[in-house]
Amino acid sequence: METRLAQREAGCCKMGATQSVQAVEHEQTKDLTKVLFTEEEIKTCVNQMGKRISEDYAGKNPLVVGVLTGGYVFMSDLARTITVPHVVDFVKCSSYGSGTESSGKVKFQLETSHSIEGRHVIVVEDIIDTGLTLSNLVAHLSTMGPASIEVASLLDKKARRKVEVKAKYVGLECPDEFVIGYGLDYDGAYRSLPMIGILKPEVYS
């Protein structure tokens, strides 16, 4: 017993640690020109959205579909705030290349593992940008016979819109800047930042 306790105390996550999440410094924040939304602001937004969804989908057992890869952080947090029974699933599609501009071509790389037919579906996206990816995804899922399909997006960057899309649940309005953090990336980096900020142009130019 004493050996097990000693091994636990020697681990990286020690019981009784007082350092808060907010106190953790992230080296990658040096690449931000400014923080748009703090960790606390995002948390408040996610909680409010989860409450709305819980009220709207009481008794409907919705299928909550997260869009990978960018939406994985938001999806994880949002799902835990939805208090009514629901099923979690994922899809993966993208219209982005390796830089900051959309390629304009949508690729479907992963389909849902659960049947959509007759289900109330909520598509969870990190950001609505050009609308190309989301509009194609919604159209694709709609062919599978869902009872209903709605979109929940943390961010909405209206200035970049090329295709009109309808999102019932939108968290925060985003300026026309290249933003990273909380799942959003630049070439795979910065997803783990707990806040959302504007990336310095010299990083990607």
From TrEMBL:
Please tell me where this protein is predominantly located.
cytoplasm
Lipoprotein keyword on record = no
Localization per Swiss-Prot or TrEMBL: Cytoplasm
Sorted alphabetically, which keywords does the UniProt record give? Cytoplasm, Glycosyltransferase, Magnesium, Metal-binding, Nucleotide-binding, Purine salvage, Transferase
Pathway assignment: Purine metabolism; IMP biosynthesis via salvage pathway; IMP from hypoxanthine: step 1/1
Q: Which residues form the Phosphoribosyltransferase domain?
A: 42-186
Name a single GO cellular component: cytosol
- The molecule here is called Hypoxanthine phosphoribosyltransferase
Organism, by scientific name, is Cymbomonas tetramitiformis
Lineage, uppermost ranks: Eukaryota, Viridiplantae, Chlorophyta, Pyramimonadophyceae, Pyramimonadales
